[in-house]
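Re: weekly structure request thread

Next one in the queue (231 aa):
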Amino acid sequence: MRIWNNCPFTVWPGLLNNPNKALPEGGGFALEKYHTTTFRVPDGWAGRVWARTNCNGAGHCETGDCGNKIQCSGAGGVPPVSLAEFTLDGWQGQDYYDVSLVDGYNLPLAIFPIDGTYKRVGGGKYDCNNAGWQADINAHCPNELAQKNSAGATVACRSACMQFNTDEYCCRGAHNKPETCKSRDWKVNYPAIFKQSCRDAYSYAYDDTSSTFTCHSADGRKTGYVIKVCP
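Done, posted below.
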């Protein structure tokens, strides 16, 4: 797996994975602007990757903080944060991957399968294609969802679930199924704001059909992926 920081500033990738699997890079590190780093994950790995911003020497980050430390060591990123999510070597060796805004947004992300490491099966839109987007959602985040820094700049955009904590937006209680978690029950269709900027990203908990990508390895090799920040 490779992480590529295409932002004009340093980011601090964070990693969180399934139990009993190796945690690459201790779960976090600094990555300078326009630099890449590569690491290996074990078979059957599942996890998420995110990019933290404006971390200080003590490890506290303005967005995506994982507990005031550079190596997250098994801690997740504090929302709102954009996520690259993976479940590798699933049913019949199939990988699943997506970009999720269910926990909100801080930076644009994209996932690219690496040429020569995969094969397409079926050739549909979600078969080994790129996931993610380029748009800056902070630029048009509704004021009621905006997370601002001390200078008053919007540095992240909260999800409606995080901001309002209702069963309707969080898809829980009577709304805990795809059939009952519907936009007709939302006072404002906030997930659509995320979806308009990134049509292939998860915008709420049951947004599977337009957000989950799959891929198969080629000739016994494991599919490689690039996670690009600021694509």
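The domain at 2-229 is CATH 2.60.110.10 (Thaumatin). The longest helix spans residues 190-197.
Next request, please.
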